[in-house]
């Protein structure tokens, strides 16, 4: 470990000074959070790239720093000198307008610069950002908007960092833990009842409006027509998925979309990612705390869109549209959701009495919807390189909603649109069912 954080302790974010209610304080606190997430990892851990879709921890640390240097310091801080001109090629992700970049599948080959050099890079850019935000130029509306975008961008990479290191550790035959939490209590006697919460439909408004931050893909707010529908009161649980497996769910082509069935055959899927059957009907899963017994009452996690769709068909239901999900979420509160700040780092069984209405809408697992990721009516990407942030990915991906157990607190909202390709499942993704009323 690179800090004094104890294995198994909850994340303790260093206080670098500054009120987190102001721009400088929020910036520094968020930067410290990223480094706290990386702290339990060795330099070797932070170098590895386990698949093309993932990135090394070291690369996340550098890329989020490159973002602030490229879009804020270089154009806005008078006299700023780029830390290393060569590093833009290494740590640009997909911004074509900024220039060429190192191939994504080869990020794990970047043994240089070293981790210590990357941390010095972070410290240097942090110092520059503090100087910029103390100047008159740092108080302008455009600078503040880019600062907010950069903070939210880094929060996305905090979640990606944990997703990627879990995948990397799962590839190690020793199945090491990111941290050392002991096996958690299992909800052995949990009742798996589901209520169906009805909605009248009609003309409904969705999309972000107001003063709070949102990404450009969450707007414009617009009206959609919905037929009456019902949402399941809870996400699909591990016990439900075990029943799906036992009923031959991964062996029945009639349940699957054509591309999904082809993927099942090619990849040999027999269960969600990270699941292992220790004995007949007894399952464990690789987690950030190492292999853990599967809690039957916890939401199922690490399933692809194809698996979510097949399960819904097996259950005689369907996936909600993203508009249906957002209308349902408008009835819910985000208070108490199992997000990164809980320290659980895994989906948890619902606690306390089961009241009426929708439960666990925010946190625990991202929930697949049946909606393709596409622009809202009237959407226009912003000008310049930052306009590449979301718009150019609006093809061949599906929308997820609600956040997960590794989504930073304060980052999620009802209008937030996450998106992944339908075959991907290393993200903390689960399922909530819907049906026509």
Keywords:
437 residues, alpha+beta, Four Helix Bundle (Hemerythrin (Met), subunit A), paralog of FGE (formylglycine-generating enzyme), 4-stranded mixed sheet, 3-stranded antiparallel sheet, 9 helices, 29% helix
* Sheet with most strands: 4 strands, mixed
Count up the helices: 9
Class from helix and strand fractions: alpha+beta
CATH topology annotation of the largest domain: paralog of FGE (formylglycine-generating enzyme)
Rounded Rg: 22 Å
The percentage of residues in β strands lies in: 5-15%
Which blocks of ≥5 consecutive residues have pLDDT under 50? 1-10
Using the coordinates above, name the CATH class of the largest domain.
Answer: Alpha Beta
Q: Strand order within the widest sheet?
A: 10-9-8-11
- How many beta-strand segments? 12
Based on the coordinates given, report the CATH architecture of the largest domain: Alpha-Beta Complex
What is the end-to-end distance? 53 Å
Query: What is the overall silhouette?
Result: globular
Rounded average pLDDT? 92
CATH homologous superfamily classification of the largest domain = paralog of FGE (formylglycine-generating enzyme)
H/E element order: HHHHHEEEEHHEEEHHEEEEE
> Helix fraction?
25-40%
Whole-number tally of structural domains: 2
């Amino acid at each position: 470990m690179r800090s004094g954080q104890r294995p198994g302790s909850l994340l303790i974010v260093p206080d670098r000074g500054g009120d987190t209610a102001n721009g400088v304080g929020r910036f520094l606190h968020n930067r410290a959070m990223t480094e706290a997430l990386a702290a339990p990892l060795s330099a070797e851990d932070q170098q590895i790239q386990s698949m093309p879709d993932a990135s090394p921890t070291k690369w996340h640390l550098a890329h989020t720093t490159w973002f602030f240097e490229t879009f804020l310091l270089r154009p806005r801080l008078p006299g700023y000198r780029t830390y290393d001109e060569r590093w833009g090629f290494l740590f640009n992700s997909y911004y074509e307008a900024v220039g060429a970049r190192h191939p994504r599948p080869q990020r794990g080959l970047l043994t240089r610069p070293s981790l210590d050099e990357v941390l010095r890079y972070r410290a240097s850019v942090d110092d520059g950002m503090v100087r910029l935000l103390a100047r008159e130029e740092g108080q302008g509306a455009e600078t503040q908007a880019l600062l907010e975008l950069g903070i939210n961008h880094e929060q996305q990479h905090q979640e990606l960092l944990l997703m990627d290191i879990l995948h990397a550790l799962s590839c190690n035959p020793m199945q090491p833990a990111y941290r050392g939490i002991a096996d958690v209590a299992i909800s052995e006697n949990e009742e798996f009842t589901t209520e169906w919460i009805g909605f009248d439909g009609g003309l409904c408004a969705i999309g972000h409006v107001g003063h709070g931050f949102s990404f450009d893909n969450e707007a414009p707010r617009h009206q959609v027509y919905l037929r009456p529908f019902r949402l399941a009161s809870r996400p699909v649980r591990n016990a439900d998925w075990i029943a799906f497996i036992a009923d031959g769910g991964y062996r029945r082509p009639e349940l699957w979309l054509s591309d999904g069935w082809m993927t099942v055959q090619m990849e040999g899927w027999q269960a969600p990612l990270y699941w292992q059957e220790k004995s007949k009907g007894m399952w464990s899963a690789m987690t950030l705390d190492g292999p853990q017994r599967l809690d039957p009452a916890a939401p199922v996690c690490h399933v692809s869109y194809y698996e979510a769709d097949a399960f819904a068909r097996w259950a005689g239901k369907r996936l909600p549209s993203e508009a249906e999900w957002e209308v349902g979420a408008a009835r819910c509160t985000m208070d108490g959701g199992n997000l990164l700040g809980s320290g659980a780092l895994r989906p948890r069984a619902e606690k306390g009495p089961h009241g009426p209405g929708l439960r666990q809408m925010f946190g625990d697992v991202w929930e697949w919807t049946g909606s393709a990721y596409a622009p809202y009516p009237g959407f226009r990407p912003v000008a310049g390189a930052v306009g590449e942030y979301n718009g150019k990915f609006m093809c061949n991906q599906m929308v997820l909603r609600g956040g997960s157990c590794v989504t930073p607190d304060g980052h999620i909202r009802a209008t937030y649109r996450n998106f992944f390709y339908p075959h991907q499942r290393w993200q903390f993704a689960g399922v909530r069912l819907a049906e026509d009323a």
